[in-house]
Design goal:
7-stranded mixed sheet; 32 helices; Disease_R_plants; ADP binding; 17-stranded parallel sheet; membrane; globular; coiled coil; alpha/beta
Length: 1047
């Protein structure tokens, strides 16, 4: 809300309206009132607690009126059909009727604001929570289960005693409740204090600042508390000329280090002393110059279950009976010790029965304790005001929902949360906010299908966000909404992951039915009892799925966002439904079932900015869409039955993104010249003539950042070499897509022509992301290796290609996906590149190799390659038997994702990975080794960027002589229980070392065939087993009777 209000203050619309005497005074009053209210709102947002009804009511009143301000400005822009700031000529031409309406609205808003300013803004703070949790002592030990805490502590202690300069400042980073302080305590107590020993410190101290930095607590020989300035002087005196260890608990800003700590710490022996800082924000750790960052891992499921049983205080007999439901509860807690302790404390107050535990599972975290609220609220308060609304918006999605990055940033922009900054587009600003929320631990980074980047909101944090925004945001599994018909945002989402947790098979028990709220039509707005009754009915129907009608939405006249992702609407969308939702800004109908057409009334949504009907069976876009003057995002991806768009679409001057990929649109029958803000065109149908790109006649072609071209298989003749088809666009992202065709249908000469065509699509040097899909050639164009700024590359489905370019030579590549290559048998030196001793894949952080049916060998990586790799995905590689040994020794790799098909051949290699790095992606197998558990997505112990650059440069300066290999490895691998680097590259193989390639293939085929046969032995189901035993028993009885009779 704060960012959109800033836009209002600086908006030229009201500035120009104010030039007219009739409204000048009122506009100036409105601006002054806004400035006063905005300052009060900023202060109140930081202080209001969840149980402060007065403060929350005041904030609600303020936000309601701010929304009205936005609507007034929008209506004026829509009426005049002019860009913001271009109204002077229209007003002066005598449009007095519109001016009168605006004047009346502004007068009314002034009255409302002045009434708000008269309200007392009294907030209360939970002092008990501050005393209990704001001042944590180093000797207050929580439950520690599992050896991973001691293992991590040993690694960090080893770094503390290292002589390397980068180990002077170490950061422990992780989200709230993950165990940062627990780990720091273990380190603090294990470190020895004494004289004369190089592994001893002369002094160790633990300090913690108050939230407002006014006071400081210091623990050394005893606990001392006082004003920050005096305490820092005491700290300097304590460590003067000594070798010390200092733990700084919970810093929230880099200013704590720069303005307060750097000076006093210089009084100690800076060369041999060490400092550990604890923070939730990885960006702070980098900004203060931490030489080593340790990311705390989540608990594995085995340790988490043990902690749950311990906190629930149940007997061993009860543990056996409740193990399965306990595992589901642990999975819901997502490896957070704080969440496990919280739910364990709740279970302690219930009987150890399945019924009680299932009830707790279903209702877990609906109500947080005051201490939990306080701990999460610290992170929330520390957010800038413009980022809080983005964070709260994510709570509108269901539990465990995959929030795709592309869509969420577009919806934030459509809601007015994002302000365009100098030299940055709104999309770039929103992307920064998204990454910042992940860095602060408020969102958890996830990867979807086909490399989609997104996030999930941890369950406790989502519960907090729901409580804070329950008067604005409503999800179909919410229960705390006070007035359903006044909500601003509503989501009814079919979430398969959430349904999988429901044991009794009732999909609607938790309200995750994916069906639409319904309510009675005869609602009497003048009767409070009727309104209360209908709220209850709407909530009950949302939670039980009794109604699948959209009629109830008509009563939600304040809605700004409506998300019906994957829902089912059997009776379709009624013609008049949208007429009552005229304030709607975001309409997300992705993968909705049961609708075949959009009603004409969609044109009445004059405030709509975002319309997404991707993956639906909608056949036609109505002409009335041209009346959506404010529309910024129109997404029709994979709507295969849509054959054309209205020509009037060219009138959508504010359109920023048009996605028609996967539709039936073959020709462009409209002009792009009026779309002055277009930065993303996805699914451009190029047809059989490369010159059709000329129809992308943008007024400002350099504004276009993203372009996806479909149907490249239609072009058989390459253009002249001096006419590059996309040269005029300074693209950041480019996708070149062919239709997937069966290999025998394409002759060899056509394949060669297609390669020549692709050679002409040389992008601008600023290109950051590239995707080539269903390419028909046997080799990729050479211009790929000239893209020095390329950060992301996805090569998908190339059936003839038998080798890849030397992608290891790309200097800035951070993300690489290679998927669907049917004939690619090996990844070797040609993939790495001939770098003459330099580092390959020097910036690569994420690598995805998937659906590679023929791939059996991945080799030839050197010990210093992949120095920044964090996530590796090996999926669908059914014949893979050789993987680089350096992957097991990597100190930066924190997550290796494999599926059953891939695991079959390399299971023995996976045993070499430690510290919970291996993740099973389909839950059909489990490694027998206890130390291999589910890992977090946050990178483990990754060197900060400036250190990584130094490592890469140091390695690049080395040559390929074996005598220098040890130095290279030592520069690139952190000393964390790593074995001494080998001078020769050793590959982990299953097949005999000296076998020929065809013999190795035979071994692989025999093993695969054996593995396909073995499961059939065990395919008898329980019924067959029982019948077999029964028949055998009868036969034995008959034989016994015959024997008795004969005798």
């Amino acid at each position: 809300m704060a960012s959109s209000l800033t836009m209002f203050v600086g908006n030229l619309v009201l500035a120009e309206i104010s030039e007219h005497r009739a409204v000048k005074g009122d506009v100036n009053r409105l601006k002054k009132n806004y400035e006063r209210v905005a300052l009060m709102m900023e202060s109140a947002e930081r202080k209001v607690m969840l149980d402060d009804e007065v403060g929350r009511y005041w904030l609600k009143r303020v936000k309601d009126h701010m929304y009205q301000v936005e609507n007034v400005v929008d209506q004026w822009i829509i009426k005049n059909d002019k860009p913001r700031g271009s109204l002077r000529r229209t007003i002066s031409c005598g449009d007095h009727s519109g001016l009168i309406k605006v004047a009346a609205a502004i007068k009314e808003l002034n009255v409302d604001f002045e009434s708000i300013l008269k309200l007392p803004v009294e907030t209360k703070t939970n002092q008990h929570a501050i005393r209990s949790y704001g001042k944590t002592a180093p000797d207050c030990n929580a439950d520690i289960i599992g050896d991973y805490v001691d293992s991590d502590a040993s690694d960090i202690i080893e770094l503390l005693h290292s002589s390397k300069k980068r180990c002077r400042l170490i950061a422990i980073v992780g989200m709230v409740g993950i165990g940062k302080t627990t780990l720091a305590r273990r380190i603090y107590h294990r470190v020895k204090v004494g004289d004369g020993n190089t592994h001893h410190f002369e002094k160790k101290l633990w300090i913690r600042f108050s939230i407002d930095l006014s006071s400081l607590i210091m623990w050394s020989d005893r606990r001392k508390e006082g004003p920050t300035k005096a305490q820092l002087q005491n700290l300097g005196a304590e460590i003067a000329n000594k070798k010390f260890l200092l733990v700084v608990d919970s810093i929230w800003t880099e200013n704590v280090w720069e303005a307060l700590l750097e000076g006093p710490l210089q009084q100690g022996n800076s060369e041999s002393s060490r400092v550990i800082v604890i923070t939730r924000n990885k960006h702070i750790a980098k900004r203060i110059g931490a030489g080593h960052i340790h990311y705390v891992k989540r608990m594995n499921n085995i340790d988490a279950l043990s902690l749950l049983f311990r906190r629930a205080s149940i007997s061993e007999n009860d543990e056996a009976d409740l193990k399965d439901i306990g595992q589901q509860i642990v999975k819901k807690c997502d490896g957070l010790p704080l969440a496990i302790r919280s739910i364990g404390r709740t279970l302690r107050g219930h009987e150890p029965t399945r019924h009680d535990w299932e009830t707790v599972y279903r209702t877990a975290f609906q109500d947080l304790s005051p201490e939990e609220q306080y701990m999460i609220n610290l992170s929330f308060q520390n957010l800038p005001s413009y980022m809080r609304q983005c964070f709260l918006y994510c709570s509108v999605f269901p539990e465990n929902f995959f929030i795709e990055k592309q869509y969420i940033i577009q919806q934030w922009i459509s809601e007015g949360f994002i302000v365009e900054k100098r030299k940055l587009t709104m999309e770039e600003v929103a992307e920064y906010y998204f990454d910042e929320l992940i860095g602060r631990g408020l969102l958890h980074l996830e990867f979807g299908n086909a490399g989609a980047i997104g996030a999930k909101m941890p369950i406790m944090i989502r519960s907090f966000a729901k409580d804070v925004s329950d008067y604005e945001n409503f999800c179909n599994e919410s229960v705390s909404i006070t007035n359903l018909f006044e909500v601003r945002r509503l989501s009814i989402v079919e979430n398969n992951e959430f349904k999988d947790h429901n044991d009794d098979g009732n999909e609607n028990e938790n309200g995750d039915s994916g069906e639409i709220i319904g309510a009675e039509e005869n609602i009497n707005d003048n009767t409070a009892n009727n309104n209360h009754r209908n709220n209850n009915e709407a909530r009950r129907e949302a939670n039980t799925g009794e109604s699948v009608s959209l009629h109830g939405l008509r009563r939600m006249k304040y809605l700004r966002t409506l998300v019906l992702h994957k829902s089912t609407i059997p009776d379709g969308i009624q013609v008049d439904m949208f007429k009552q939702l005229n304030l709607l800004r975001v309409l997300d109908l992705r993968e909705v079932q049961g609708i075949r057409a959009l009603p004409i009334s969609i044109g009445s949504l004059e405030h709509l900015r975002y319309l997404n009907i991707s993956e639906t069976n909608i056949r036609k876009v109505p002409r009335s869409i041209v009346y959506l003057r404010m529309l910024q995002y129109l997404l029709l991806r994979n709507c295969s039955e849509i054959q054309t768009l209205p020509k009037g679409i060219r009138q959508l001057r504010y359109l920023r993104c048009l996605d028609i990929s996967g539709t039936g649109i073959k020709d462009i029958n409209w002009s792009f010249s009026g779309m002055e803000e277009l930065i993303s065109m996805q699914g451009f149908p190029i047809g059989d003539n490369i010159g059709s790109l000329q129809s992308l006649d943008l007024k400002f072609p350099k504004k276009l950042d993203i372009l996806r071209i479909d149907g490249l298989e239609e072009i058989l003749e390459p253009p002249p070499e001096n006419k590059w088809p996309i040269k005029k666009y300074q693209l950041k992202e480019l996708e070149l897509c062919y239709i997937n065709v069966d290999p025998p249908l394409v002759p060899d000469d056509t394949i060669d022509k297609r390669r020549q065509v692709l050679d002409r699509f040389v992008p601008h040097k600023r290109l950051v992301h590239l995707k080539i899909q269903n390419y028909y050639g046997k080799q990729y164009p050479s211009w790929i290796l000239t893209l020095s700024n390329l950060h992301g590359l996805h090569l998908q489905n190339c059936v003839w290609c038998k080798k890849l370019p030397s992608l290891g030579e790309l200097p800035q590549l951070k993300f690489l996906a290679v998927t669907g290559f049917d004939n690619l048998c090996s990844l070797g030196m040609e993939f790495r590149g001939d770098l003459q001793g330099k580092v390959a894949f020097r910036r690569l952080q994420q690598l995805f190799i998937g659906d590679m049916k023929a791939l059996h060998t991945w080799s030839d990586l050197q010990s210093h390659d992949l120095p920044q790799l964090q996530i590796l995905r090996l999926l669908g590689c059914i014949n893979l038997v050789v993987i680089p040994l350096i992957l097991q020794e990597s100190t930066t790799l924190m997550r290796l994702e494999v599926d059953t098909r891939t695991k079959t051949m390399i299971e023995d290699k996976l045993q070499g990975f430690t510290k919970g790095k291996v993740v099973n992606m389909d839950d059909t197998w489990e490694l027998q080794q206890d130390r291999i558990v589910i890992a977090d997505v946050a990178p483990q112990n990754v060197h900060p960027p400036h250190q990584q650059d130094e490592i890469v440069e140091a390695a690049d300066q080395q040559n390929a002589h074996p005598s220098q290999q040890d130095e290279i490895v030592q520069a690139t691998v952190a000393p964390q229980n790593a074995q001494p680097p080998q001078q020769e590259i050793v590959e982990a193989e299953v097949a005999p070392q000296n076998t020929h390639p065809h013999e190795q293939d035979e071994v692989v085929e025999e093993r695969v065939a054996l593995q396909k046969k073995m499961p059939k032995i065990f395919q008898l189901d329980i019924i067959n087993v029982v019948l077999t035993i029964f028949a055998t028993t009868i036969l034995c009885s008959i034989l016994y009777l015959l024997y008795v009779l004969r005798s």
